[in-house]
Amino acid sequence: MNVTGTLGKTAAAWRIFINNVGSTGFWLLFSFVLLFFVCFTVYLLCDRHRVVTTYYCGVSGFFYTLLSIQHPLLHFPLLEVDIAVSLHISVYLTILLSGVVSKKGDNWIVRGLTFPGYFFINTSLLWLVLLPLTVFLPEITIMISVSLGGYGFFQAINVSYEKVTLLLDQTIAYPSLQRLKTNIGRQHDPKKPTEETKSPLLEILHLADLDVGPFLSCKRCARTIAKMLVLKPDMVVFTGDLASPMMSQSRSLHKALVPLKSYNGPKYAVLGNKDHYNKKKVIQALETVGFIVLSDSEDVVSITRKDGTDINVQVLGSAFHTSDPQLKIRRLCKTHAPKHEHFRLLLSHTPELFHHLSGYKHLNQAASQSIPSQKRGRFLIQGDAGTGCDLVLAGHTHGGFWGLSSLFNAINLVSKIPSRGFWANGTSRMYVSRGLGCCGAPMRLGISPEISLLSIQ
């Protein structure tokens, strides 16, 4: 067989193809042929849950195909068409491997092959956001999209290890939702803990939105968790979304949590919206490493702290509800009333449930006096003292829309959904994690992924 001749014919065919790229009809036909091949291959390779996996691959590919019909980067004079087309093809390869990984598991080869596709997806999505600007500055818009796409991809893999101090001063009651300041010790090496001024009431390792998949591998997730366990938290909690929708079919999900198997402290979890794609496997993975999965239920545990003293903790876990969340969260808190001399901790996947709590665990005199007199009567009447909590832990938001903090802060003015950080409502407090994984495209702009040890004061 003449290898040189075969390579020459392949190069000639590639050149003919490149010369026809400018035709929208040809481009669309080529893209849908690629998408059909991807979906067909995924369907053949995934013997379990193949319909669900193929569906998500198809939807992702269809959306990207429509976006790429007139993608200016494919005709951008500063970039070789060969490179642009290769990046376009790499997106379909990424979708294919994302489906295959749900059955075969992840490895460094898969992650390496999917990175170019993820980068080009980021660029495409940012170009769509900046579309109005292309009318006036088309080339500059593309350069901004490429630059931000690369930066967002880099920040998505740059995990922030944090030790966050939360001051729970419950002598102060806030009549409405209020964001509070925190003392955050950011450190690349968690083995060097931030010094505490006094012994904390409780130290909690908060895991949220891991979204394990082809972008965040099980091994990388496990290494990240292991780095924080050296700080010896009093307890570990997980507030939902263990895996991406396609990876939720995998039998190796528990490998992402392996370091927790040797951790002897209490571990509690609630499920997120993505965990319901394969609820049984997710619960099995969590229980394999020792988590107690709560679903509109409670558990009471006595924890021996580092100073040798004990603290009683009442842990409530809210199930993920799409209908009547206000009724169900209040029912949960009233059914499991506050226990005397117990720290009351509520785990919820979504932070918007915080609005539906009255905000008061116990309405003491000091807290009552801190409410403005013109609002005191309304809050004393409507504020059921049984539906508040000492601390609510949540995630879900990933810190904002693709990590665009300024945009999400503007949305917060209307929606009043806390996107990240420390919040107060009445005498209750809530901390919202930015999460470790990514929602959809692996991109974060301005807000890095987070894994935190919460030091409760």
What do you see in this structure?
Helix 2 (24-45) packs antiparallel against helix 3 (50-68), helix 3 (50-68) runs antiparallel to helix 4 (81-104) and helix 5 packs across helix 7 (138-156). 41% of the residues lie in helices and 17% in strands. The strands form 2 sheets. The protein has a 7-stranded mixed sheet, covered by helices on one side. The chain is elongated, with a radius of gyration of 25 Å. A hairpin with a 5-residue loop joins strand 8 (297-304) and strand 9. The model is unreliable at 363-383 (pLDDT under 50). The chain starts with a helix and ends with a strand. With 457 residues, the protein is an alpha/beta fold.
List the helices and strands and how they pair.
Elements: H1 3-19, H2 24-45, H3 50-68, H4 81-104, H5 108-129, H6 131-134, H7 138-156, E1 160-166, E2 174-180, E3 183-186, E4 202-207, H8 218-229, E5 235-238, E6 267-269, H9 279-288, E7 292-293, E8 297-304, E9 310-317, H10 325-335, E10 343-347, H11 365-370, H12 373-382, E11 391-394, H13 405-415, E12 421-426, E13 428-432, E14 450-456
Parallel strand pairs: 1-14, 4-5, 5-6, 6-7, 9-10, 10-11, 11-13
Antiparallel strand pairs: 1-3, 2-12, 4-14, 8-9, 12-13
Helix pairs in contact: 2-3, 2-4, 3-4, 4-5, 5-7
Work out the strand percent.
15-25%
Tally of separate helices: 13
Query: Describe the biggest sheet?
Result: 7 strands, mixed
Radius of gyration: 25 Å
Percentage of residues assigned to helices: 40-55%
Number of strands: 14
